[in-house]
Design goal:
The protein starts with 8 loop residues before the first strand and ends with a strand. The strands form 3 sheets. An 8-stranded mixed beta sheet has the order 1-4-3-2-5-6-13-12, with helices on both faces. A 3-stranded antiparallel beta sheet has the order 7-8-11, covered by helices on one side. Strand 5 (169-176), helix 8 and strand 6 (201-207) form a beta-alpha-beta unit. Helix content is 37%, strand content 26%. It is of the alpha/beta class and 336 residues long.
Length: 336
């Protein structure tokens, strides 16, 4: 009977009381935490539709090929440093922000073999996405140990110590695909650096500004955000809380990061057209006509920016790949 169940570990960062406090804080401060756009199965499905339609990793063969080249080189690196089985070596593939698991499945196809003990950890703030990724990869690799984990990365500095088995010689591959745009750079890179030990590999992708002119590149990809599918996904968290569609409109803009002024990001705001009052349990939320509720932001980068940022955290870019569109970069990195 146990084989019929999906065993999921939930980190304390996603225990009910903490999640609810984060939820209330977002509405009180008028800055919705990104994790609440993936909270329900309904929201996850809406996000997957957006990803399918607009992500270069799903629509651009050159971008798909970039991931394949990255994964092939990752496999070659692992093969060069292979440790004999009698030394009890094992490999963890820890996918932070696993999404639907398609990239992870492609990566596993390159690095999974009978001579290498491998465990796959799909990690996401969304229970439904963690399960979707686990089942997606397991459907192709039935003998691969898979352990989904639900956590909030910003509150999970101890996660890596909970995953690592101190009795085994374990090497970690950390993947972070499509996630870095939705965090403040310094905030998330501090956490990623803590996840990595010397020699560990980091594979990640970043949304790029596809032009020699940084701002013009961001303007070029602006329609990938300012569209009805994305607006419908973002407004769901407000509708579920009791806000009405006619209470405001969603507006997208390009804005400068106040703490990293050489970075620009695309942000979405709900601009209020009237006073709005509603209750979340015992908490009264009062918004005024003309106020703006930040729903979302996404940084755009260039490869030189990425290299400089990672270097400051002791992470070297071993190689990188950009499709012809230059809308996404795939990076193979190592902690030094």
């Amino acid at each position: 009977m146990l084989e019929k169940f999906e065993k999921v570990y939930v980190h304390p960062s996603q225990f009910s009381e903490r999640v609810y406090q984060d939820y209330l804080s977002g509405f009180s401060l008028k800055q919705i935490n990104h994790k609440f756009h993936y909270d329900s199965f309904k929201q996850s499905q809406k996000w997957l539709k957006i990803h399918e339609q607009f992500s270069p990793a799903r629509q651009d063969d050159n971008c798909i090929d970039a991931y394949a080249k990255c994964f092939q080189q990752t496999a070659e690196i692992l093969d060069r440093v292979a440790v004999p089985q009698e030394h009890s070596s094992s490999l963890n593939l820890i996918s932070l922000g696993c999404g639907g698991g398609e990239k992870d499945k492609l990566l596993v196809s390159h690095i999974f073999n009978i001579e290498r003990a491998l465990t796959y950890y799909p990690v996401d703030v969304s229970l439904s996405l963690a399960i979707i990724s686990a089942q997606n990869v397991r459907a192709t690799f039935a003998n691969l140990p898979v352990q989904p984990v639900v956590c909030d990365l910003l509150q999970s500095n101890d996660l890596i110590s909970l995953i690592n088995d101190k009795e085994k010689e374990t090497r970690n591959i950390i993947t972070f695909f499509g996630m870095i745009p939705n965090f403040s750079p310094d905030e998330i890179l501090t956490i990623l650096s803590n996840f990595l030990e010397r020699g560990d590999l980091l594979l990640f992708s970043a949304n790029l500004a596809p032009s020699s002119d940084y701002l013009q590149g961001i303007q070029k990809v602006f329609p990938q955000y300012d569209n009805e599918l994305t607006k419908e996904w973002l407004i769901t968290v407000l509708l579920d809380a009791g806000v009405e569609r006619e209470d405001g409109t969603i507006q997208f803009q390009i804005e400068q990061d106040s703490q990293n002024q050489h970075f620009q990001r695309i942000a979405a705001y709900f601009d209020l057209k009237k006073d709005v009052t509603f209750k979340l349990e015992d908490e009264l939320i009062e918004w005024k006509n003309g106020e703006r509720i930040r729903l979302f932001f996404s940084y755009r980068y260039t490869t030189p920016m990425i290299k400089e940022m990672l270097k400051s955290y002791g992470i070297d870019v071993l190689n990188y790949w950009e499709p012809a569109s230059q809308e996404e970069g795939v990076y193979l990195c190592q902690k030094v």
